[in-house]
Design goal:
about 325 residues, single chain, six-stranded mixed sheet, capsid protein of prophage fold
């Protein structure tokens, strides 16, 4: 049965678990939107594998003449598997430190909250940048999954000789409309309107300015009272920084955007990711049972230093249809 973090919260049996789940959902746009298909069950081995078929192409329909047959066409799918892995962290607290301060559990609460913060940042990083060739304990993210697909929009392949679109030089409504034509062409390559567009602060700031130039920008509040900005009804979200650093999850990079070497490397290039969530699009997979678990230090037992842990999963993410997500590369943002 597919579950979300909000539904998992209803199954929590103690106050600590409820608090942890609230922290994950409030602080991570991805986790707040993601539905987990909890269908993986251990069968005696140590590998938890989820297999699925990704829709690569769609089929069309036609009229036919009487006494003639339809021309058969079939969808194209490709088989994929992903291994589920646990994500979390551990911390240790001395029993003396745990008793210091106005709140007896202050050190425990602080470490727990910071582990939650690190875990949600690590998950967001993996969703975008995950690469099992680099870290076999994780899963492939959208950057790797979308490379070479029909929804990877490269300016160099769409009439831009320089290989990148420059959003730092927009000075008029006409400039903004020309720049957003690439965004609209990119979004048109998806199978449906996406739920969200992810980027970094700098690229999204320029994106919002373009949307304001062209009257395609609006702003509301979400269920937690946070400001939500949109482009043509699609949420614009900054995924912020990676765990343990100030580097953006979707960073500004230096690369050769035309791929030919003639133009050389260009600095300050950002990417945008559009995602349609759903069990037929982009979703999570998890094992049957609890999605989030915590282990508090047990100071009733002998031993001066005790360990606490926070863990999600085992879990992973999958893209069921290639056109349910896309990436717009090489936006000059700085």
């Amino acid at each position: 049965m597919p579950v979300t973090l909000a539904e998992a919260k209803n199954n929590a049996t103690d106050d600590v678990d409820v608090q942890v789940i609230d922290e994950f959902s409030k602080s991570s746009d991805i986790l707040n939107r993601l539905t987990f298909d909890d269908v993986v069950s251990p069968t005696g081995g140590d590998t938890l594998t989820y297999g699925y078929r990704r829709l690569i192409t769609q089929v069309s329909a036609d009229f036919r003449a009487i006494n003639s047959e339809y021309t058969p066409t079939e969808v194209t799918t490709q088989r994929y598997t992903v291994d589920l892995k646990p994500l979390g962290g551990a911390f240790q607290v001395d029993r003396v430190v745990a008793r210091i301060g106005a709140a007896a559990s202050g050190a425990v609460a602080l470490n727990m909250s910071q582990k939650i913060k690190a875990a949600r940042a690590k998950f967001a990083d993996a969703v975008i940048n995950g690469d099992t060739a680099v870290d076999s304990n994780g899963f492939d993210g959208l950057s790797k999954i979308l490379t070479g697909t029909s929804t990877e929009y490269l300016p160099a392949s769409n009439g831009v000789a320089a290989g990148y679109v420059d959003w730092t030089t927009i000075a008029s409504k006409a400039d903004a409309m020309a720049a957003l034509r690439h965004v609209d062409d990119w979004l048109a390559s998806l199978d449906e309107t996406p739920d969200v567009i992810y980027g970094n602060r700098k690229t999204l700031s320029l994106f919002k300015a373009l949307a304001m130039w062209t009257d395609q920008y609006d702003k509301t509040q979400d269920a937690f009272g946070r400001e939500v900005t949109r482009y043509n009804g699609v949420d614009l979200v900054d995924l912020k920084t990676k765990a343990g650093s100030n580097q953006d999850v979707i960073p500004l990079v230096t690369r050769d955007p035309d791929g030919a070497g003639a133009g050389g490397n260009v600095t300050g290039l950002g990417d945008l990711y559009a995602v349609r969530y759903g069990l037929d699009g982009f979703h999570g997979v998890s094992v049957v049972g609890d999605l989030v678990q915590t282990w508090l230090p047990d100071f009733t037992q002998a031993g001066a230093v005790k360990t606490g842990e926070v863990e999600m999963g085992p879990l992973a993410v999958v893209l069921k249809a290639t056109k349910a997500a896309g990436v717009l590369r090489n936006i000059k943002s700085a």
